[in-house]
From TrEMBL:
This protein's record includes keyword Membrane: yes
Keyword Membrane: yes
Name of the protein described by the UniProt record: Amino acid ABC transporter permease
CC terms in the record's Gene Ontology section: ATP-binding cassette (ABC) transporter complex
Record-annotated ABC transmembrane type-1 domain positions: 95-388
Short name of any one Pfam family annotated for the protein: BPD_transp_1
Keywords: Amino-acid transport, Cell membrane, Membrane, Transmembrane, Transmembrane helix, Transport
Topology class, membrane: Multi-pass membrane protein
Lineage start: Bacteria, Pseudomonadati, Pseudomonadota, Gammaproteobacteria, Vibrionales
Family in the record: Belongs to the binding-protein-dependent transport system permease family. HisMQ subfamily.
Top-rank lineage group of the source organism: Bacteria
C-alpha cells in the first residue's frame, strides 16, 4: 500500500530540535545581554582607571564637594542664594537658570515661528517678503554672533541707571537691565492668586469639553470669551471684594543701581532674544512646509462651506499640518535647550557657566562635575521629547 501525502510530508519534515541553543529568541536575548555586559565593563574600566589615576595624584574624587561652601556670588538666582551656600546649591541655581531661559526661549520661538511661517504664505506681498527676509537673515547668521549683537551692540549701548529710559515712575530700562514693580501679597492676597489658578484650570477643562462637544455635535463654544472672564474678570472681582489686598513694590534708584521690584538682567534678555529669534526662523520654515503639505482641496472644501480664511486656517489646515510639524519642531526645541549653553559667552549664570565653569575651577573634580552637567542636559532633552511625543500621539491620525 502506498503512503498518502500526509505520511510523506510527515516523513520529509525534519524533527524539531530540542536544543535551546538553536532557539532564535533565546540566542538574540543572550547576544544582547553579552553586548550590554561588555559595554558596562568597558565604561567601568575607563572610569576605574580614571579614578585610580586621580587618586595616585592626590586629586579627590566623589561628590563630597557638593556639601562644601561655594564662596562666590551668582548674579541671577531663582532661589535664595549667597556666598555661604554650598556647591550643591550652585548646581540647583545653574539648573534653574538653564531651565528658565530654555522655557522662555521655547515659548517665544514657537509664537514667533508660527507667526512668521503663516506670514510667509500670506497673499499680501509685503507681509510675505518681510517674513522671507526675516527667515533668510536670522537662520544664516551664527547664533553666537546674534547673542553678541543683542548683548554688546543693543543692550550695552543703553544709558546708565541715572539716565534710564522710564515709563512713569514704575518701569526703568538701562544698561543694568529692565526694572518694574513686583506684586506684594498682603492679607487676603492668596485668595486672588487662588482665583487666578482656579480660572486657568477651569478654562483648560472647558476647552477640553468644548473640543469634545464640537467633535460630537459640530457646535462651537466661545472658549476665548469664557476663559477671558475666568482668568481676568474673576480674579479682579475677588481683588476688589477683598479690598485690593495686593500692593506693588516699585524699583528705586539707590547709589549706582535700582533696588526693589523685579529686574531682568541684560544677559538673560540678550540670550532669550537671540535664542528665540534664531530658532523661530527654523520653526517658521517647518510651519510653512507643514501647511503646504496639507492638500489644497481641504482649503477649498472649507471655503466652499463659507468658512472665512482665519477659521479655515485654525480649524482645518493647522490641525492637519501639526501632524507634520511636531516631529521636526521637537528637534528645534532640543537644539534651543542645548544652545542655551552658549550663555557662558556673555556671562549669563546658567549651568555651564556656574557649575561646569566656576565650580569646576574651584573644586577640580572634572569627572563628577561634567557628568552631572551632561546628565542635566540629557534629562531635559528626554523630558522635552517625552512631552512632545505624548502630544504627537494625541494629534496623530488613528486608523480604524
Amino acid at each position: 500500500m502506498k503512503p498518502n501525502n500526509n505520511q510523506v510530508a510527515a516523513q520529509a519534515k525534519p524533527a524539531k530540535s530540542t536544543n535551546i541553543l538553536y532557539n532564535p529568541t533565546f540566542r538574540s536575548v543572550v547576544f544582547q545581554l553579552i553586548a550590554v555586559l561588555a559595554l558596562l565593563a568597558f565604561f567601568y574600566t575607563i572610569v576605574n582607571n580614571a579614578l585610580t589615576n586621580l587618586s595616585s595624584r592626590g586629586i579627590a574624587t566623589g561628590f563630597d564637594f557638593l556639601s562644601q561652601e561655594a564662596g562666590f556670588g551668582i548674579g541671577l538666582s531663582l532661589v535664595e542664594y549667597d556666598e555661604t551656600h554650598t556647591y550643591g546649591k550652585t548646581f540647583i541655581v545653574g539648573l534653574l537658570n538653564t531651565a528658565l531661559v530654555s522655557v522662555l526661549g521655547i515659548v517665544f520661538a514657537t509664537v514667533l515661528g508660527f507667526v512668521m511661517g503663516i506670514a510667509r504664505l500670506s497673499s499680501n506681498w509685503l507681509v510675505s517678503r518681510f517674513a522671507a527676509v526675516y527667515i533668510e537673515i536670522f537662520r544664516n547668521i551664527p547664533l553666537l554672533l546674534q547673542i553678541f549683537f543683542w548683548y554688546f551692540a543693543v543692550l550695552q549701548a543703553l544709558p546708565s541707571p541715572r539716565q534710564s529710559i522710564s515709563i512713569g515712575e514704575a518701569v526703568f530700562l538701562n544698561v543694568r537691565g529692565l526694572f518694574f514693580p513686583a506684586p506684594v501679597l498682603n492679607e487676603g492676597g492668596s485668595f486672588v492668586v487662588g482665583a487666578l489658578i482656579l480660572g486657568i484650570i477651569a478654562t483648560i477643562v472647558i476647552s477640553i469639553w468644548a473640543k469634545n462637544k464640537q467633535r460630537l455635535t459640530g457646535q462651537q463654544t466661545p472658549v476665548f470669551r469664557i476663559g477671558l472672564g475666568l482668568i481676568v474678570v474673576l480674579p479682579m472681582v475677588v481683588y476688589l471684594v477683598l479690598g485690593m489686598p495686593i500692593s506693588a513694590e516699585y524699583p528705586v534708584l539707590k547709589g549706582f543701581n535700582f533696588k526693589g521690584g523685579i529686574s531682568i538682567i541684560p544677559e538673560l534678555a540678550a540670550l532669550t532674544l537671540a535664542l528665540s529669534i534664531y530658532t523661530a526662523s527654523f520653526i517658521a520654515e517647518i510651519v510653512r512646509s507643514g501647511i503646504n503639505a496639507v492638500n489644497h482641496g481641504q482649503t477649498e472644501a472649507a471655503m466652499s462651506l463659507g468658512l472665512p480664511r482665519s477659521k479655515t486656517l485654525k480649524l482645518v489646515v493647522i490641525p492637519q499640518a501639526m501632524r507634520i510639524i511636531i516631529p521636526p519642531l521637537t528637534s528645534q526645541y532640543l537644539n534651543l535647550t542645548k544652545n542655551s549653553s552658549l550663555a557662558m559667552a556673555i556671562g549669563y549664570p546658567d549651568l555651564v557657566s556656574v557649575f561646569a565653569g566656576t565650580t569646576l575651577n574651584q573644586v577640580g573634580q572634572a569627572i563628577e562635575v561634567i557628568a552631572m552637567t551632561m546628565g542635566v542636559y540629557l534629562t531635559l532633552s528626554l523630558l522635552t521629547s517625552a512631552l512632545m511625543n505624548l502630544y504627537n500621539r494625541k494629534v496623530a491620525l488613528v486608523e480604524r
